[in-house]
Specification:
Helix content: 10-25%
Strand content: 25-35%
Structural class: mainly beta
Strand order of the largest sheet: 7-6-3-4-5-2-1-14
Number of strands: 15
Number of domains: 2
Distance between the termini: 41 Å
Shape: globular
């Protein structure tokens, strides 16, 4: 009984230790850009998004438009065109495919400044399909397991796409509400903030849903970038938060973000009625 009382007191103390904090976003250096760039070994148009830092929380970033963007390898050069439907989004042609054992250089020219980064690809890997579980009390399911959160040798990012918009009873609804995209990570480190990360809302889906599971291979540098990004975002707000810090980048000074090249392994499955 004493133990239960102690747990209740501790819970009340944690719940009561909340105060409002006014967070001022510091001024950013002039010309700073934010780059989201990832190439894969899939033959398709690849997108590189470039924006400016936001001056305040929850604002929409302004796109970096009119930039000259190209990708170079030891024997090839590809110029990217800005998407006419979305400013700040630059596209390769649909025949582009990245190759293993090749070094790629990203070059961005904007407002008389040059930004660059280099990246290579590590091989992809076959994997066991995820598992899902039926929710008690209804006929819906949720993801139970995707992959180990830790691997010292083969870090990876997992993209899980779930679609039930075509099923009877859902085909008249907005398709956006009947699809989900989830991300999971296998990293070469384990952090306390990761173990005690805030609980995220589960996604529920019916039998017959189609799940596409995609594994992206990560270099050690790319994995460390994602780890630091998660420490500043998804893993913040836990009982053991980390001190805020700038996230690493492989881009030259004046740019933040990351330029990565990944091998993609993919499988699909249909959720079976259980």
């Amino acid at each position: 009984m004493k133990k239960k009382s102690l747990y209740i007191i501790l819970l009340l103390l944690f719940a009561g230790c909340v105060k409002q904090v006014d967070w001022t976003v510091p001024d950013q250096p002039t010309g700073l850009i934010v780059v989201d760039a990832m190439l894969t070994d899939e033959r398709r148009a690849h997108a590189i998004t470039i924006s400016q830092p936001i001056p305040a929380l929850n604002e929409t970033p302004a796109p970096v438009t009119g930039a000259t963007v190209f990708i170079a390898s030891p024997d090839s050069l590809w110029f990217l065109n800005e998407d006419p439907m979305q400013q700040g989004r630059y596209l390769t042609d649909s025949s582009f495919v990245a190759a293993i054992n090749t070094s790629y250089t990203l070059q961005i020219l904007w407002q008389e400044k040059t930004y660059s980064a280099q990246a290579t690809m590590v091989p992809g890997k076959v994997f066991n399909e995820l598992t899902y579980k039926k929710d008690e009390g209804d006929n819906l399911y949720h993801i139970d397991w995707v992959a180990s959160a830790f691997s010292a040798d083969v870090p990876a990012m997992w993209e899980v796409l779930i679609d039930w918009s075509f099923l009877p009873g859902y085909d008249t609804l907005d398709p956006v509400d009947c699809r989900a995209r989830l991300l999971f990570y296998t990293l070469p480190t384990i952090d306390v903030s990761q173990i005690f990360a805030p609980v995220v809302e589960q996604t529920f889906f019916p039998a017959g849903s189609v799940i596409t599971e995609r594994r992206y291979s990560l270099t050690p540098g790319h994995a460390e970038f994602l780890r630091q990004l998660l420490l500043e975002t998804n893993w913040q707000g836990s009982m053991f938060p980390t001190a805020n810090a700038n996230v690493m980048t492989n881009l030259s000074p004046g740019a933040v973000g990351y330029f990565g090249v990944c091998a993609v392994t993919e499988l699909s499955l249909v959720v079976e009625l259980r």
